[in-house]
Amino acid sequence: MGSKELVKEFEQKASIFSSLESMTSSLLNALITQADIPIHSVTSRTKNVQSLSGKINRPSKSYKNLLDITDLVGFRVTTYFSDDVDKIAALIEKEFAVDKGNSIDKRKALEPDRFGYMSLHLVGEHKASRLKLPEYKQYKGIRFEVQIRSILQHAWAEIEHDIGYKTTNEVPDQLRRRFSRLAGLLELADEEFQSIKYGIETYRSSLPERVSSSPEDVSLDLDSLEYFISSDAKVLALEEEMRKVFHCKKLMQPEDEVLSNSLEFLNRMGIDRLSELISLYEEQEQYLVPFLKAWLSDDGQMNVSKGISLLYLTYVNLASKDDQVHAEYVLGSAPFMNVSELAAGIKQTWDTIKI
């Protein structure tokens, strides 16, 4: 079939290819979400007539049929970490019929300066079981390409494409070494980000044992604080009492922003280790519920999250120190409209329950 006939057939079936792109993109997003693999994005495109003409008119290309072209519709899955590329690939091989003969793993390239081309290209089509569904029947026999790469690999490829060099030989001699060095730096960064991710996962998995056996060795950070307020029996019991005062049905999951503010309060009060926070709870927990009851101005229902005791622990501790300047310093780390009035209100409430 000549190039004109191929282009004509493509134009006649343009709506099918466009539909395939839309349906498959939605399916990919749904499958990845269901598999709980965090990614940066799923993008897609369908070739236009100009792009198709350029492809089929290349001297090195020869196509007998339109459907011999495997990238009429293409998708790109960009992951945050390089190890997630294989997870996405495994998911695609499970959910689609992958044409391994036309797929290529460019990550296996030996050239050290080809970092930008290290993405995995899979060619596939919808499985027979899915093609039985009425909305998928029209896609029978149409293959598509899925490129999978990390976000740093993607950044390199995009910038390199914008510069305009497609091969190493096209790069001026005086710039080749710089290209190579930069490719190595990006590859190292990719590996370091992945290593950091593993380090965070290892740290989080170690928290239960460390918090239980040696809280004095656990520094306060977002992860240790969230684990502590979500697992400590005394804190859970205390916040259950507070939940009743708020008249809410249940405490919501803790929000990072709220915990981050509480962490800043604690640090400004000189509380840097988990053992110090535990001691502060033991010192002030008897006052938290009475303070909360005196603090609330009405009996209306309020939605609050786990970790709410941290806020009132801060209030009670500041009030007990009776130091207005220090209180304003600590509270000044959060976006309150009037820190002086807040500090004064805390002290007034404290005086009420201490009478």
What does this structure look like?
- By secondary structure, this protein is an alpha+beta fold.
- It has two domains: 3-187, 2-Layer Sandwich (Beta Polymerase, domain 2); 215-354, no CATH class.
- It has 14 helices and six strands.
- The chain has helices at residues 3-12, 14-34, 49-56, 84-95, 128-131, 151-163, 173-213, 222-231, 233-246, 256-268, 274-295, 308-321, 324-331, 339-354; strands at residues 39-46, 73-79, 96-98, 104-105, 120-126, 144-150.
- Strands 1, 2, 3, 4, 5 and 6 form a six-stranded mixed beta sheet that branches.
- Helix 1 packs antiparallel against helix 3, helix 9 runs parallel beside helix 11 (274-295) and helix 13 (324-331) crosses helix 14.
- The termini are far apart.
H/I helix tally: 14
Question: In CATH terms, what is the architecture of the largest domain?
Answer: 2-Layer Sandwich
Structural class determined from secondary elements: alpha+beta
Please give the alpha-carbon distance between the first and last residues.
Answer: 95 Å
The portion of residues forming beta strands comes to 5-15%
- Taken in chain order, the helices and strands follow as HHEHEHEEEHEHHHHHHHHH
The percent range for helix content is 55-70%
As for the CATH topology of the largest domain, it is: Beta Polymerase, domain 2
Sum up the overall morphology in one term: elongated
Radius of gyration: 30 Å
Average of pLDDT: 89
Number of domains: 2
Characteristic terms for this protein:
single chain; 355 residues; alpha+beta; 14 helices; 6 strands
